[in-house]
Amino acid sequence: MIASWWAGLSLIMKILWGVTLAASLIFIIQSIMTFVGADADTNFDVDVDTSMDGADLSNIEGGSNLYTFRNFVNFLLGFGWSAILLQDNIPSTGLLILVSVIIGVALVAAVMYLFKWLSGMQQSGNINLQKSAAGCEGKVYLTIPAARSGMGKVQITIAGAVREYDAITESEQALKTGSSIRVVDVVDANTLLVEETNTYTI
Q1: Domain 129-196 adopts which CATH fold?
Q2: DSSP H or E run through 157
Q3: Residue 193's beta-bridge partner residues?
């Protein structure tokens, strides 16, 4: 039955179904890993250089940086499922793709706004970053350039919750995504000084 259904699909619908199901599976895995405190983006770092160093990026999924793997997955979810669900209502393939792209972008924007709002709620709580973060351990989320030459991102556990912050390092080598780190000092409300605690492993 499934084989006959699949055989009856057009090439573009087969591609859409494949991409959408793959994105959905990755999203489920990411969600499970997030709940258990793991780094769902390990192995997917493309060394994107964030140009929003002054922005409040802490605790935001994917930060305010648009070009992250999580945001890419969110876009594919919105795009793929929209195209599949609207295919019977929009006969024009070009219009269907356009509408689906708009919905995908809107979903990414909504998720980023949601996590930014949650970030503000968390920061207005009782956590004193200066007292709580020093000595905490975690993982590098986006590669941190060497010798304070740029900013990356880390995820650390504070008060039982996984939180995300901008980070710099004094290390002579860049700290790659997935590296285990320890917080050495708090630079400001959103930025940590970290050091690597062991050799990077995949």
Answers
A1: OB fold (Dihydrolipoamide Acetyltransferase, E2P) (2.40.50)
A2: strand 152-158
A3: 168, 185
| Each residue's pLDDT tens digit, 55-110 | 333 434 444 455 678 888 999 999 999 999 998 898 888 898 999 999 999 998 99
pTM for the model: 0.47
* Amino acid in the structure at residue 96: L
Alpha-carbon distance of 100 to 52, in angstroms, equals 28
Q: Where in the chain is the domain with CATH 2.40.50.140?
A: 129-196
The string of DSSP letters for 19-55 reads HHHHHHHHHHHHHHHHHTT--TTTT-------S-TTS
Nearest residue to 142 via CA among 31, 63, 83 = 63
